[in-house]
Amino acid sequence: MAEASTNDLVARATSLLNLEAALLDDRRWHDWLDLYTEDSMFWVPAWVSDEAWTTDPKRQVSLIWADRRNLVARVFRVEGGDSYASMPLPLTVHLITGIAVTSSLGDIAEVRANWLVHGFLRTSGAILRAGRYEYGLRQIGADLKIAKKKIFIHDDPITGAIDFYNI
Length: 167
Hints:
Blueprint: H1 6-25, H2 29-33, E1 36-45, E2 47-49, E3 52-53, E4 62-67, H3 68-80, E5 91-105, E6 108-121, E7 125-140, E8 143-153
Parallel strand pairs: 1-8
Antiparallel strand pairs: 1-4, 2-3, 5-6, 6-7, 7-8
């Protein structure tokens, strides 16, 4: 990605992150999965102190740690009604801001963004969650794909169920 200008890379990353948010809000989960590389990692670290999260998903607790195959399984469970903690599904609106390319080495661009998700259930009302995303985006053909997504949830304590669609 070295040949791409920083402005072009920010524009492409912004487009990808906004598309991801729209697909989640529209519950177009198979299209959402297509944004991820086959070797992708989706990680939500857990809090370990007032200002720190876990740093090693293989040795420490994570709220979610999934590869693409596990994401496919999560989508399957939600679509099939087998994710009882997710029923009924909330209506969501993902807001993303502050998108910035923090580095671009080789075929991976590191991108960070702030997020806010408004979720609403008729049975329990609204839940707001916020935090920071850290992405590793990889050029695959003409497209940018998500090779890594790390989601820091700034809410403490976390109320309600969390899954790929509401963070």
